[in-house]
Write a structure and sequence with these properties.
binds NADP nicotinamide-adenine-dinucleotide phosphate; 27% strand; 2 domains
Length: 324
């Protein structure tokens, strides 16, 4: 069993940034990266909306820079997946991993992010990054003048679909019901937008590629008539919800009905000394820039928390009197 001052669970933009700040505060953080280091950014072709990179930066390159910068100041990495934490007896808290390691830590920062919910249909995985996307903000630009379909009927599908109309010549929203779940104001904007069309009561069952290995169509089925048709399209944007990666914390940390961790204005969860940052506690903004900000705040709050604890212990344990 190894004891750490602070463990950061998860290595996306929030986790790397929390590690950078904790390292520069001499906390020698250990980052347990999870099974997908870099998170959603690492599957993003190019990030063009992160300040400081006017020409954009490749997702994998950005992740490498985040990693190296935190490491330069003393961050250590363990390429392992946290399976559970114990909080009842803490602090210190116990962290267990998939490969059987057990750690204790005086503070934790949870930055495990969220994963896009997948359709789990043929073609989806193989064509991700080749016309299948889960991020309009990241990839919309590549569909200038092209035809795309959006799958889903919630706020994300409609908001991202509206964003795509800035680039695409046509955006068809394929929704499994005949009513959108999205907010009325978003629905109004979508119905008013002449580039947006709706394919109701329909599910996507397969995604096809042309000879060049890039998406060129989808097979859809009308759930009311059972009729199956092929729609030609250049891109498939899937927005059927996100799943926060909070399963190791179930029953341990407070979360909302959708599984997002609940934090206070110091990024602290309901358990003292356990902080959270990035998408695991943010169902709304979900940007690299916002996750970086939240990671910064969580690390600063954790640093203050650890300093206060240390001070408390010193006050409780008065210095030895010479001669004693
Ligand atoms: P969501 O609200 O859960 O909507 C998911 C959509 O995908 C629903 O329309 C659902 O259909 C559909 N869907 C789910 N599984 C499917 C499947 N297997 N096949 C086909 N369709 C499927 O998710 P979200 O849109 O990502 O929003 C998540 C949260 O973030 C919400 O609380 C939302 O309000 C919030 N959000 C807010 C904003 C904003 O305020 N601007 C923007 C984005 C997100 P059904 O409708 O039939 O269930």
């Amino acid at each position: 069993m190894t004891h750490e001052k602070i463990i950061i669970i998860g290595a996306g933009p929030a986790g790397y940034t929390a590690a950078l700040y904790a390292a520069r505060a001499n906390l020698e953080p250990l980052v347990i990266t999870g099974d997908k280091p870099g998170g959603q950014v690492s599957i993003t072709h190019i990030v063009e909306n992160y300040p400081g990179f006017p020409d954009g930066i490749g997702g994998p390159e950005m992740v490498q820079l985040f990693h190296d910068q935190a490491e330069k100041f003393g961050t250590r990495y363990s390429y392992d997946l946290v399976s559970s934490i114990e909080v009842d007896e803490g602090p210190p808290y116990t962290v267990k991993t998939e490969i059987g390691e057990t750690y204790t830590a005086d503070a934790l920062i949870v930055t495990t992010g969220a994963s896009p919910r997948l359709l789990n249909i043929p073609g989806e995985e193989a064509l991700t990054g080749k016309g299948v996307s889960y991020c309009a903000t990241c990839d919309g630009f590549f569909f200038k003048g092209k035809d795309v379909v959006v799958v889903g009927g919630g706020d994300s599908a409609i908001e991202e679909g509206l964003f795509l109309t800035k680039f695409a010549s046509r955006v068809r929203v394929i929704h499994r019901r005949d009513k959108l779940r999205a907010k009325p104001i978003l629905q109004e904007r979508a119905f008013d937008n002449e580039k947006m069309e709706f394919v109701w009561d329909t599910v996507v069952e397969e995604i096809f590629a042309g000879e060049n290995g890039v998406v060129n169509g989808v097979r859809v089925r009308n759930v009311k008539t059972d009729e199956t048709t092929r729609l030609d399209t250049d891109g498939v944007f899937i927005f059927i919800g996100h799943i926060p990666n909070s399963w190791p914390f179930e029953g341990k940390l407070e979360m909302d009905d959708n599984g997002y961790l609940i934090t206070d204005d110091h990024m602290q969860t309901n358990v003292e000394g356990i902080f959270a940052a990035g998408e695991i506690q943010d169902p709304v903004w979900k940007q690299v820039a916002t996750s970086v900000g939240q990671g910064t705040a969580a690390a600063m709050a954790a640093t203050e928390y650890l300093a206060a604890k240390e001070h408390e212990q010193k006050v409780r344990r008065p210095a030895a009197v010479p001669g004693d």
